[in-house]
Amino acid sequence: MLKYLYLEDNLFMGSIPSSFSALKNLKNLDLSRNNLSGQIPKYFQNLTLLQYLNLSFNEFEEEVPYEGVFGNASEVSIVGNQHHCGGIQNLGLPPCKAQGLKKNKRSHNLKIVIPIVSCSILLAVFLFLFLFTWARRSKRKASSLLQTQEPFPKISYAELSQPTNDFSLTNLIGEGSFGSVYQGIMGEHGMLVAVKVVNLKQKGASNRVNFKAIVYELMQNGNLDEWLHSNEVQVGVHNFNFIKRLNIAIEVVYAIEYLYYHYQPAIIHGDLKPSNILLDHETVAHVGDFGLARFLISSKKTSSLGIIGTIGYVAPEYGTAGKASMAGNVFSFGILLLKMIIGMRPTDEIFKDGLNLHQFAKLALTDRVMDIIDVSLLQEVQNIDENVGNTRRSSRERTISIKEILITFVRIGVLCSRESPNDQTEMNDVVAELCGIRDKLLGNYRFR
């Protein structure tokens, strides 16, 4: 079932194994920049779904096949192999020495083929043309930039240079230890993108060998930390009210749960914090910056971390055991929830002498929760109370309902951020409780 296989830029030697012939669903294969040798296997011609084959900069020799993927010069690359010959004319290779004799032999054989075999060949040609045309149309239909079904479409240096204004400072939107990030507009649909360039300052970066970059969809609304500590509402976006914060929390927990329970191998995000929660043009949350993420390949569901995450959000167990685990993600998510509802950073000056954000929230449960809630959310509760009407009883009931919902939200954050993994709530339960809060909230109120 394998469709995409990228093995470029390694030190592989020898010939391509015959087992590759079993990859009947293969679409993209990149074996470039290795030390592979021998003849190019002819079974590649029979992989009818193969649309991209890169064998460049190896040591292949002898005749290049003519059919299948080799019949289209735009779908195969064999540059950098010094002993090639044959192939279709568009590949620009010299003819093989015995090519003339092979043509005469092929012509002689055709003259003695019986009609039944001729019909079979004709039928096979029609079938091949049908599959080839269908594959080309499907590829063309899905070739819209960054909207292709292929997980990692390749983009040239020139295609990135133009929308980023040749990687100018005016397009620079961020710098970090792994490279610089530039914004631009790409594709026929004018998609806003963020281009993360690795080591652009290197002298020979433009030769397309040393140059490396990754293209992401640009998150137009920045990150969650900026929203939680901004005094101004961004243009064109609704107020950052409680229901919006709740939706973001649910979107984040769904992402974390999916990567751990429903993806193989399971992945742990090693640095979950508000600045790594990116918001798109509709303020939908995207979990980003997996620089400390770890793949879990053992049954113990832990992985060596090596580096700790951000102070205040990293689980205590990371510092003692040096192992990343789902419990560590639950802890970080709990601190994230408390920050979203209280509005305080876990590193604020108030948290000292053994007091932390978890304990601060726990001490306020349940009688003093309204005293620690973010001021902007308190104003929202007051607005709801005023809009209910003149009926004091109805007003009181709805205000109490909102208070109960806020208490539940804080309680989830406290349960998640317990120091002992054995005392933490399960992420599956967190999903259910947060969705329950949202259902209850939307069933009783309308927010502008």
TrEMBL record:
Membrane-protein topology: Single-pass membrane protein
Broad class of enzyme this protein falls into: transferase
Catalytic reaction annotation: L-seryl-[protein] + ATP = O-phospho-L-seryl-[protein] + ADP + H(+); L-threonyl-[protein] + ATP = O-phospho-L-threonyl-[protein] + ADP + H(+)
Localization per Swiss-Prot or TrEMBL: Cell membrane
Chain positions recorded as ATP binding sites: K196
InterPro entries with a match to the protein in the record: Kinase-like_dom_sf, Leu-rich_rpt, LRR_dom_sf, Plant_receptor-like_S/T_kinase, Prot_kinase_dom, Protein_kinase_ATP_BS, Ser/Thr_kinase_AS
Highest taxon listed in the record's lineage: Eukaryota
GO molecular function: ATP binding; protein serine/threonine kinase activity
Enzyme Commission number(s) from the entry: 2.7.11.1
GO terms for cellular component: plasma membrane
Protein keywords: ATP-binding, Cell membrane, Glycoprotein, Kinase, Leucine-rich repeat, Membrane, Nucleotide-binding, Phosphoprotein, Receptor, Repeat, Serine/threonine-protein kinase, Signal, Transferase, Transmembrane, Transmembrane helix
Alphabetical list of Pfam families matching this protein: LRR_8, Pkinase
Classification via Gene3D superfamilies: Phosphorylase Kinase, domain 1, Ribonuclease Inhibitor, Transferase(Phosphotransferase) domain 1
SMART domains: S_TKc
TM stretches of this protein: 112-135
Domain Protein kinase: 167-410
Major localization class: membrane
UniProt similarity note: Belongs to the protein kinase superfamily.
Protein name: non-specific serine/threonine protein kinase
Organism: Rubroshorea leprosula
